[in-house]
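Escalation from tier 1.

The customer reports that the assembly of two entities below gives different structure tokens on two consecutive runs. Tier 1 could not reproduce it. I'm attaching the input and our single run for tier 2 to review.
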Amino acid sequence: MAERKLRILIVDDASLVRLYYRQILEAVGFEIEEALNGLEALEKLHANPADMLIVDVNMSQMDGITFLSTLRRQPLPLSSIPALVISTEAGAQDIAAARAAGANFYLVKPLGQNILTQYAAMFCGLPL
Amino acid sequence: MNEFLEQFLVEGRELVEQATSDLLMLERGPSDPERLDSVFRAFHTLKGGAGIIDFAPMSRAVHAAEDVLSAVRTGDRPVTQALIGDCLSCLDQVVHWLDTIQDSGNLPGGAEADADRVVARFTTDPQSTGNTKAAPIATASGASAILPARPVAVLKEQLSLLAAGGDGAEGRIASAGRLAANVLRHMARADEAEEVERALLQSRTSRDFTFLTAAIEHAVEHITQPMPAEAVPAFAPRVAAAIKDEHARLDHLIETLQRAVRSLRILPLHWSGRCRNPTPSPCGWSRKVTKQKPTRLLLRCCSNRFCIVCVTPWITALNRRSSARRLESLASPPSP
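Tier 1 run:
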């Protein structure tokens, strides 16, 4: 039986960013789902949970911080999905806010292909 | 024109249109926070897109405008006609760049100078707070692309996440444990990953995250402070003596090693060796000793006359801190 592909949900309102992540991660075998904001992400996760989340901060309707804070209050196992925040904001207060909301790690945009792939593999427990 | 560039142009024009509309509305109603958020996001996304496509001058110019809008959002700057005008000028410049990119696939010559002029408008504003950060940002092909991922930093961040507290404690604990275990598996540290998962279960059952914290701290300690390989024989003299005996029987050696490993409570213990046996047959034999779970022992030999001459042992982790003291005591010469 074929192994299930690991699924990553990208939550970002910028279509270009989503396309960039998708192309990199699909090329190494991940299944990619997209959401334009936190609300859409919650809906999609309830329907089909992911193995990892890549979350932007500044989004309309529901930003990344509110999304993560809401997600962590959901029942298990939904609330346990590891979340990598990737934002252009690099201030200490931005990182602290993401951590307080339940982000597992924080990176500053833009990211190179290799580093994005490495973090995805790490978050999903794939070997080096 | 590639897919990225096409997408960038489509999105860029939409964002310029959105931002222009928002700025004009903001001019009429400067205290509208939703409008302010919207225009900020448009500039923010425009900057991010330019960064991905590697159009640094555009990214730099839009970044300057975004910073000023950020100051407005936090109440550090008022919305003024001049500010609106500067932002609109920035967007005009962006449109000019988008047109050029559409025609030629690249930014026009002199884009850096144009970006400098845009940035200067924001930084020389008499009402500026002086905190505009218009430095070039790294791009997808820049320095960030070659930095390695940092598993230990991710593990340590899970400790910070656990310590931060706040709402959603159960989800926070579960995600930190799940990710820590994944990171350890990623690093081929399956035993420590299982230990973290056991601790996670314990933390969830008891609603006490200190079990998980201890397990992650333990793993970090092992990763960051590996025991030097050359120290192992000194710490475990009985093991060292056994493996140096070229003519030792395999079962005797395993028994000796098992006993020593059990007493040392080493988790896990990996041994590998280079066999100098002259037989042409390959060293294809290996054995796992799992009697004393989770002790694991890997040995190789070529024949019944077991032969390990050059052995490089190393310990990747210790079961508990106290084990190190135990090892040291074993390494001490016996009392007369």
